[in-house]
Design brief:
It catalyses: [(1->4)-alpha-D-glucosyl](n) + ADP-alpha-D-glucose = [(1->4)-alpha-D-glucosyl](n+1) + ADP + H(+). The protein is an alpha/beta fold. The protein has helices at 25-39, 54-57, 104-121, 137-145, 165-172, 192-199, 208-213, 224-232, 262-276, 296-306, 320-327, 343-352, 368-374, 385-390, 404-418, 421-433, 438-455, and strands at residues 10-13, 44-49, 61-68, 72-81, 84-90, 128-132, 150-154, 162-164, 185-186, 189-191, 202-205, 236-238, 283-287, 311-316, 335-339, 355-358, 378-382, 397-399. The chain has 2 domains: 10-242 and 438-455, Glycogen Phosphorylase B (Rossmann fold, 3-Layer(aba) Sandwich); 262-433, Glycogen Phosphorylase B (Rossmann fold).
């Protein structure tokens, strides 16, 4: 197979890309942003690992098998979809079930060493390379060392890709100076996220508020000093994520009773009530990873009082202790819990619930609150990160302290507001009318890219 790629593309590199591979919001962003850029006329390529079994879910065609020095054989797969060229790199390290494993620093270091040589072998000269999260931090370093303009986006600072430096140094193929404090070294460890921060021309986060928060000790995950330096140098920016409005569209959603206003939503509420045997009390829903970041322990501690006024439906997996604790509420007629992922149920919750709980301790951007608003479900969120940037206080319900008491207070405020039907319906209508399309975000990235290229002369 002969592969023909566009000249001067923007190249995105990420560990997961919807609809090919997904564990969370990173994949959703990589499924939407490149497509928006391609629709705006920018040639766009996405590079991601070729995970085992991926060819079963997509029309990936094997282009050739390359040999990359220090990495070995790399299978190159390709699919073109929606104006975007997707390249899949198949390394032996990824030939196992699942996306992520305990040795991911080694796996993604080898992937990071392969991306630039593969693109060069294809004759690709990127207009700019855009890496996403720690998995691409080494790619950004190698791209910068090859003279390519780069942008690096932090989707979640908590995950950094750290490993003892004496061992990881053998995997990264970097010059000696790049292994020091001005490169990947961080307190005696290799830190692949720091690699992206240090080598990129510009660093972005996925919301303006999160960009401010991560320069503080509370949110900086130990890297606040590096991020403060980037901020002083004008290299740190916050660009709010958008939402895939085709995938999340209550008018055409195959998983729900389609609707465009309040009347149609009521049918989905009735169906959700019937599915779980709920009574006529309003429904509070959540779709979330069960993790400390997401504040799901706050929701758990608030349940005894919440069920006095709300039916509660929870979908999610993660922390086994939280899973067991939520499952333990299965006896209660006003609580429904399902562990793990269930795409269809997630859509039904967004469409059928009255309110959506997102009590995150920190939230780089978050997509769930935007989906909830689009489906006419008012968010109950903590005032942090992207939740501040996307949930107006005149529409949703917010609280400041990361406590179950603060959550309950906001839920009670919502309950009192719901008694005023006209006010509740105003909030729902205005929430559904908010514009979360990728257009504005794509324009912001285009301006940032232009700034990087201008700085390069």
């Amino acid at each position: 197979m002969t592969l023909s790629l566009p000249a001067g593309p923007t190249v995105h590199v990420a560990s997961e890309v919807f609809p090919f591979s997904r564990t969370g919001g990173l994949a959703d962003v990589l499924g939407a942003l490149p497509a928006a850029q391609a629709a705006a006329g920018q040639p766009t390529v996405v590079v991601t690992p070729w995970y085992q079994g991926l060819e079963d879910a997509a029309q990936v065609q094997l282009v050739e098998t390359l040999t990359v020095e220090g990495v070995g054989a790399v299978r190159l797969g390709h699919e073109r979809r929606g104006g975007v060229d997707y390249l899949f790199l198949g390394l032996a390290d990824f030939d196992r079930p699942g996306l992520y494993h305990a040795d991911d620093v080694r796996r993604f270091s080898r992937f990071g060493c392969a991306v630039v040589p593969v693109l060069q072998s294809l004759g690709v000269q990127p207009r700019l390379l855009h890496g996403h999260d720690w998995h691409s931090g080494l790619v950004v370093a190698h791209a910068q060392l090859s003279g390519w303009p780069t942008v690096f986006t932090v989707h979640n600072l908590q995950y950094q890709g750290r490993w003892p430096l004496y061992e990881a140094a053998e995997w990264m193929a970097l010059p000696g100076w790049a292994l020091g404090p001005d490169g990947v070294e961080f307190h005696g460890e290799a830190n692949l996220l720091k690699s992206g921060l240090m080598f990129a021309d510009r660093v972005t986060t996925v919301s303006p508020t999160y960009a401010q928060e991560i320069t503080t000790p509370e949110y900086g995950e130990g890297l606040e000093g590096v991020l403060q330096r980037l901020e002083r140098e004008g290299r740190l920016h916050g660009i709010l994520n958008g939402l895939d409005l085709e995938r999340w569209n209550p008018r055409r959603d195959a998983y729900v009773m389609n609707y465009s206003g309040l009347r149609g939503k009521s049918g989905n509420r009735r169906r959700l009530r019937a599915e779980f045997g709920f009574d006529r009390a309003p429904i509070l829903g959540t779709v979330s990873r069960l993790a400390d970041q997401k504040g799901m322990d706050l929701l758990l501690r608030a349940l005894p009082e919440l069920v006095g006024s709300w039916n509660v439906v929870i979908l999610g997996g993660g922390d086994p202790v939280l899973e067991a604790a939520f499952a333990g509420w299965g006896y209660h007629p006003r609580v429904a819990f399902k562990g793990g992922l269930d795409e269809a149920l997630a859509h039904r919750i967004y469409a059928g619930a009255d309110m959506f709980a997102m009590p995150s301790r920190f939230e780089p951007c978050g997509l769930s609150q935007m989906i909830a608003l689009r489906y006419g479900t008012l968010p109950l969120v903590r005032e942090t990160g992207g939740l501040v940037d996307t949930v107006p206080s005149s529409i949703g319900f917010t609280f400041g302290e990361a406590t179950s008491e603060a959550l309950l207070s906001s839920a009670n405020e919502a309950l009192a507001t719901r008694a005023d039907r006209a006010e509740w319906e105003r909030r729902v209508r205005e929430g559904m009318a908010l514009d979360f399309s990728w257009d504005a975000s794509a324009r912001a990235y285009a301006a940032l890219y232009a700034d990087v290229l201008a700085g390069r002369g």
